[in-house]
Specification:
Elements: E1 38-39, E2 43-45, E3 48-60, E4 68-73, E5 82-86, E6 90-98, E7 126-128, E8 152-154, E9 165-170, H1 177-182, E10 187-192, E11 209-217, E12 241-244, E13 247-248, E14 251-252, E15 258-265, E16 272-276, E17 282-287, E18 290-298, E19 301-303, E20 308-314, E21 322-327, E22 355-361, E23 389-394, E24 414-417, E25 421-428, E26 435-439, E27 444-449, E28 464-467, E29 472-478, E30 485-491, H2 494-498, E31 502-508
Parallel strand pairs: 1-5, 3-6, 5-10, 11-15, 14-22, 23-25, 24-31
Antiparallel strand pairs: 2-3, 3-4, 6-8, 7-9, 9-10, 11-12, 12-13, 15-20, 16-19, 16-21, 17-18, 17-20, 21-22, 25-29, 26-28, 26-30, 27-29, 30-31
Length: 509
């Protein structure tokens, strides 16, 4: 999206995530930023690193008066530990479903009823951004049915062989993905390439290399999650409280040095225009799937749901000061006469409203390593490599459709050849909603937007790209020879994919 279409003025005042002082409310910036623990392998036998994830119910104290029923992994009441995978290390992940079967199979529209597996609180596991055979994903499209309560399933053994990046994992049960993620089932997955150590970028996890999972949530008066109770929620649930790593309005206390921020937009629908409160520039090091060829100086980064950004902020001159990570206000380029949210004037639920995200309490000065001029070998995408162009029309003549069709688990929508290069054109016919387009199985390169030039966050390796109303985005797909099996493409507004805005493609030898 061209920056000309965004509201660029700095925030005149910070909109707190919620007020402080009254009983039961949150006093902003009194809780330290939690850092998800790194999950150690259960074993390393026969050269295979084994990881185990257990989804279970819990209770999380977002507010001081009473806890909220939530989901989490491995004893965490909300979210899950960080998987730290090594390039070239054979890996297997086992998922255990410890959720109680207290949630009936989700209701869905009649055309989709045949796709809903009748397993109460059945769950799956999607390794978002990973390039591997489809059996490395524990999703019905890839390998298996929904995992029932008490059940366990393992991925095939896979060996990560792609650029270092911050990927993530989350459930992917059809018609229930939005709810399970909203209640807390998500976690980070770092893929480390040992060769990148020579870059000497900040790498002390949780110290000068901060993982930040940003999500919005809505709460009922009893502090339970308010999920899908509004008419507009079918187009994606928007919240009015911003969480970072599962805490409302936390603070971080970095040293006065260069700090690396690894941002994941883990929200169901909301996009964020991330910036620093004083408008300073910072460096973008990478996008969804890895490092850029060189650092890019930016003042803001737009992240759609599921999007990631690897940023480097220089606090070396800020010892003793307080700074904020914010989301700047922006307007969705909706068609004239349409309401992007139908939430009413002044509502904090409108996408594009300003929020403060995180407070930085900058400490004492520490030396910073120089920033390398070159980060990765990544040639510009070459469209001449493509042998075929495919067109994907979003919501043309039908809500939640792709090329006029709703999701059917028994239908393969596209067939591609392993090793092939193709151009995929995605056109958004929705007049008032931006769709984050996501493709399973690896990374692609954005070629161009019909509405203007590419921003740095459109470049590099991507698995999710935001397509604005009336816009066409072209991307160069490469179906790596190691890919095989069935994969998905879909809108990453989770309620949209739950309502059928999803398709399947198979990779053949």
């Amino acid at each position: 999206m061209s920056s000309r279409r965004l509201l660029l003025p700095l925030l005149a005042g910070l909109l707190l995530a919620c007020g402080g002082g009254a009983p039961g409310t949150v006093t902003a910036y009194t809780r330290p930023l939690p850092v998800p623990p790194i999950l150690a392998p259960t074993s390393v036998a026969g050269g295979v690193a084994q990881y185990d994830l257990t989804a279970a119910e819990g209770a999380t104290s977002f507010f001081p008066d009473r806890p909220t029923p939530t989901y989490g992994y491995n004893g965490m009441s909300f979210l899950g530990p960080t998987l730290r995978l090594i390039r070239g290390q054979a890996t297997r992940i086992t998922l255990h479903n410890g959720l109680l079967p207290d949630v009936p199979p989700p209701m869905t529209i009649p055309e989709l009823a045949m796709n809903v597996d009748g397993v109460p609180n059945g769950t799956t596991l999607h390794l978002h951004g990973l390039m591997a055979a489809s059996t490395a994903d524990l999703t019905p499209a890839s390998c298996c049915d929904l995992l029932p309560t008490g059940g366990s399933a393992s991925t095939s053994v896979f060996t990560p062989d792609q650029a270092s990046a911050m990927l993530w994992y989350h459930p992917h049960p059809f018609a229930a993905t939005g709810r399970q993620v909203y209640f807390g089932l998500a976690g980070l997955m770092f893929l480390d390439d040992p060769a990148d150590a020579a870059l000497n970028l900040p790498h002390a996890y949780g110290v000068d290399d901060l993982p930040l999972v940003v999500q919005d949530r809505r709460f009922n008066p009893d502090r339970s999650f308010d999920y899908k109770t509004l008419t507009q929620d079918d187009d994606g649930v928007l919240g009015d409280h911003i969480l970072v790593n599962g805490v409302i309005a936390p603070y971080a206390a970095p040293a006065a040095t260069r700090i690396r921020l690894r941002l994941l937009n883990g929200s169901n629908r909301r996009a964020y225009l991330f910036a620093l409160d004083d408008g300073r520039s910072f460096l973008q090091l990478g996008t969804d799937g890895g490092l850029l060829p060189a650092p890019a100086s930016v003042t803001q980064v737009m992240l759609p749901p599921a999007g990631r950004a690897d940023l480097l902020v220089d606090f070396s001159g800020d010892a003793g000061s307080t700074r904020y990570l914010v989301s700047r206000p922006f307007k969705l380029p909706a068609a004239p006469g349409t309401d992007p949210d139908a939430a009413g004037p002044g509502s904090t639920l409108v996408e594009g409203n300003a929020f403060t995200i995180l407070q930085f309490r900058v400490g004492a000065t520490q030396p910073s390593a120089p920033v390398p001029a070159t980060l990765a070998t990544l040639p510009p995408p070459d469209a001449s490599q493509a042998t075929l162009t495919r067109q994907f029309d979003l919501e043309l003549n039908g809500d939640n459709t792709i090329n006029g069709q709703l999701f059917d688990m028994n239908r393969i929508d596209q067939t591609v050849k392993a090793g092939a290069y193709e151009i995929w054109r995605v056109t958004n016919f929705t007049p008032n909603i931006a769709h984050p387009w996501h493709v399973h199985g690896g990374q692609f390169r954005v070629l161009d937007r019909s509405t203007g030039p590419l921003e740095p966050n459109d470049q590099g390796l991507k698995d999710t790209v935001r397509v604005y109303p009336g816009e066409t985005v072209r991307m160069l797909m490469h179906f790596d020879p190691r890919l095989s099996g069935t994969y998905m493409f879909h809108c990453h507004i989770l309620e949209h994919e739950d309502m059928g805005m999803m398709g399947q493609f198979v990779v053949l030898p």
